[in-house]
Amino acid sequence: MSEYNVKKLRRTHKGRIIAGVCSGVGEFVGIDANLVRIALAIATLFGGAGVALYAIGWLLMPDEEHETSIVQDIINKQQNKATPTDWSGEQKPQQ
Known about the structure:
Blueprint: H1 21-29, H2 33-45, H3 49-60, H4 70-82
Main location: membrane
Subcellular location: Cell membrane
Keywords: Cell membrane, Membrane, Transmembrane, Transmembrane helix
């Protein structure tokens, strides 16, 4: 039986400066995180897209210790809040 070593795009703790987005992308792609930081800085200077890309990465990339991203956590909380449950924890069908 063979095991598959699948790379996952995650925000890392190693090399983290703010939220770990650049270090996670650098590790995933196989380049130095400083090159990703420089590319984002250049994108920020020429139109401001670097800040938006970093924010999107922070919201959509899960932390290396978690399975879900910040956006997925918010969506899951909203879905759980919308479905009524009884005291046993079982979901009641909506009428």
